[in-house]
Amino acid sequence: MIGNLLLTISPILSSVFLHNIEVEILRELNLNRFTDLDGFFQFISNSISFITWGTTILLLILGVVMKGSQLKKRAILLLSSLTLASLITLALKFTIDRPRPFHTYDFIEKLSAGGSPSFPSGHTTEAFAFAVALCFAFPKWYIIIPSLIWASAVGYTRMSLGVHYPSDVMAGAILGIATAYFCTRAFRYFKMI
Hints:
Layout: H1 2-31, H2 38-46, H3 48-65, H4 69-96, H5 101-104, H6 122-137, H7 141-160, H8 166-189
């Protein structure tokens, strides 16, 4: 009987414990940040759509204009990864409907836009879907290193600016990576790249 009770409450206790740790991590990142970098972090966070969708559309246009079928195919890979990642994220956000941390905890300073539900981080998902698809499409160190650093910076800024929990960002990174990997595998299977 006691064993069954412990098995029943154990997941609840561990999730409360993990959530408390997560809130403390967020508190540290948000309240003890180097405030001189707030503007830079907001710039990184706000750069997401311009970089992801802008670069993808530019590559697609260049591929069409220059009649570069390989460039066009790589741009379509980026477009597919971004679109799939965005659709999955949107569905998860409104299914899970987790409130933003600044709504739940009044000590969190909100320094960026964040209107839809919190889980997973759409910015982080989009950044990692783009960065990893870009790494697969253009496997050069000078593409891989900056794109992964930028995607990681986007994830960090979403916590530092007070609009996401660490688990939102972690889930977004995993989802973005998985989406880019899945799309790349599909493109390679069908010999599209």
